[in-house]
Amino acid sequence: MKRKLKLILGNPKLIFQILFTFFIIFLFQLGTRISLPFIPSGFSGWKLSGKEIFFIAPQKLFGLGIYPYITASIVVQFLQKFFPFCREWKEQGQIGKHKINFLTRALALLLAFAQTMAFIQKSNSQLESNLKISGFNYFLIPLIAAAGCAILIWFSDLITSRGVGNGTSLLIIASMGGSLIASFQELNINYLSKLRDGFDSELFSQFLLLVLILILFLVLTVIVQITALKVKVNYARNRVSSESGSYIPLKINTAGVMPVILAQYLMMPFTTLADLIGNQTFKSVVDYLTNARIFNFAFGLYILLIIIFSFFSTFMNVNPEEISEHLSKQDAYIAGLRPGEQTTNYLSSVLFKVTVIGVLFMITLVTTPLLMQRFFKLTHMKLGGTSLLIIVSVAIETIQRIMATAQKKEYAKIF
Description:
Layout: H1 2-9, H2 12-31, H3 67-82, H4 84-90, H5 94-124, H6 137-162, H7 167-175, H8 177-197, H9 201-226, E1 228-232, E2 234-235, H10 239-243, E3 247-251, H11 258-266, H12 268-277, H13 280-290, H14 297-317, H15 320-329, E4 332-333, H16 341-375, H17 385-414
Antiparallel strand pairs: 1-3, 2-4
Helix pairs in contact: 2-6, 3-4, 3-5, 3-11, 4-5, 5-6, 5-12, 6-7, 9-17, 11-14, 12-13, 13-14, 14-16, 15-16, 16-17
């Protein structure tokens, strides 16, 4: 531990990157407290349902968070799978990457504009005429909110290129601050403040059980995030390499935190559309499909989306066919398997089985907050499995990147 800390503190460039990342996150938090202009005084609309994991306050400059960009990324990923011209962009190298980035950003800004307009529409239907937003401001406010979203996309790119960790992931963590604070406040009101007034053995037992559940899930989440199945690889030309323990690591949770985030965010545009249309029947249908409570239809749909995105993300990140081709080029093979199709099928089968374990664990995690809300009567409890998965995943990824950067300089000194 001391050696790792010494590596970090002895690298001025890395310290600058860490401080730069904190500075960008500070600017983000500042932007979530700046109200959008041209909102009438006394306007009290845009109250959220409380179901959201991520802190979203649409009347603020950065209130939409990085959500529109993530939703746009999902759409573009599916376009690449099903439309030939998008697949061609992927194969065009740097030029194709610029086209995909442009499409993603343009779509994100359109979503941000539509999301804010939907909030205005919803609020106007509930307010008196003197407090309603109308005229030119009806279009200007969403335009400013879209500009705020564009700034956040820029912040994300800055963190990724000049800071430490993945910019989008870190901004998601930063946007969760509000909901996590609300969770701690509810714990304080429901348990700690009552225990301070007078000891209650039943209340204390409930609080202790709740804390133990959170600690257990924290430990299990860390274990699942760092655990991988090692597939042994042998080399035909090099006996030493064959005996040195070369392997292909297949993580239990290869997809990481993205399936949960994608499933959560994919449901939001339908709510936005319902608010824009304003039809009560359509709103009821959307609420039935998206308002996830324990064991209702929306909950089942939410779980189904997590399963789909888990397998989709896993096989997008780890392509068994590409691994098989790479092994053949390196004169490497898996014991008892012929190079080519047999190796590909074996890797696909193993990856599928490993992903099933990861998906089952993820489903357990996302079910936890709903169960905790029911049995512990915590209406705003968001510090559950989903939050832990996001926090642990991003923390591990960021620490790994910091250590990789620190060790790179150490290796440069040796050579």
